[in-house]
Write a structure and sequence with these properties.
The chain has about 210 residues and is an alpha/beta fold. Helix content is about 55%, strand content about 10%. The chain has 9 helices and 5 strands. The radius of gyration is 17 Å and the shape is globular. The structure holds cytidine-5'-diphosphate.
Length: about 210
């Protein structure tokens, strides 16, 4: 069983996907982390994240140790991630890893929850349950700003808003696997819903789907 959760930056996919995976006893893959780790390693080499040769080499050599660390969550790394993510060869390298995990969830789990931008459209188009989360860019900037402020009191709302707008534009305009709702996804607008309400709505859909299958 694969559950796909897509949506733009800071739409609440990560928190939701982790909770759904826990509740279902499924594996969880934050696919954005793969792009963030690639972007961060390119930056660490003082290279340009849009440099195809460097980014592809980094993506090919990513290891489990590259996928953790607070620094991966910065907006600077988010921006670098969306630049490497626009390179088709980088996406091709990371695709196999994502598909493998989806079809063979680690730890003998019966399913996997993947969150990202193209899970329902490209990585796992056959997933039987897909969600697409949205919220206005101002609401998303507000949420991301609060998260960042906990770590860095000097965070600036206007800057977070501008970075999200630029990232949305880049993620939606790219030629390969752009941010787009799959035709068979359930759309949830989270502007007026808190994290618990979103989780409850998603779990209700999953249970309806599962009982229809019985
Ligand atoms: O956490 P947030 O929503 O800000 O971003 P993320 O999910 O960690 O993704 C960071 C960047 O990676 C995005 O802006 C996308 O450009 C890229 N990404 C992608 O292209 N495809 C995915 N499946 C996941 C992330």
């Amino acid at each position: 069983m694969i559950i796909a959760i897509d949506g733009p930056a800071a739409s609440g996919k990560g928190t939701l996907a982790r909770r759904v995976a826990d509740a279902m006893g499924y594996a969880y893959l934050d696919t954005g982390l793969l792009y963030r780790a690639t972007g961060a390693k390119v930056l660490a080499q003082s290279a340009d994240p849009a440099d195809e040769a460097v980014a592809v080499k980094v993506a090919e050599n990513l290891g489990p140790d590259d996928l953790s660390g607070e620094e991966l969550r910065s907006e600077e790394v988010g921006t670098a991630a969306s630049k490497v993510a626009a390179i088709p060869k980088v996406r091709a390298v990371l695709l196999d890893f994502q598909r493998n995990l989806a079809s063979n969830p680690p730890g003998g789990k019966r399913g996997a929850v993947l969150d990202g931008r193209d899970i329902g459209t490209v990585v796992c188009p056959e997933a039987p349950i897909k969600f697409y989360l949205t919220a206005s860019v101002e609401e998303r900037a507000n949420r991301r700003f609060k998260q960042l402020q906990e770590k860095n009191p000097a965070a600036i709302y206007e800057r977070v808003l501008k970075e999200l707008e630029e990232r949305d534009a880049r993620d939606s305009a790219r030629d390969v696997a752009p941010l787009k709702m799959a035709k068979d996804a359930i759309h949830i607008d989270t502007d007026r819903l808190n994290a618990n309400a979103v989780f409850d709505a998603v779990m209700a859909h999953i249970h309806t789907h599962m009982s229809a299958d019985d």
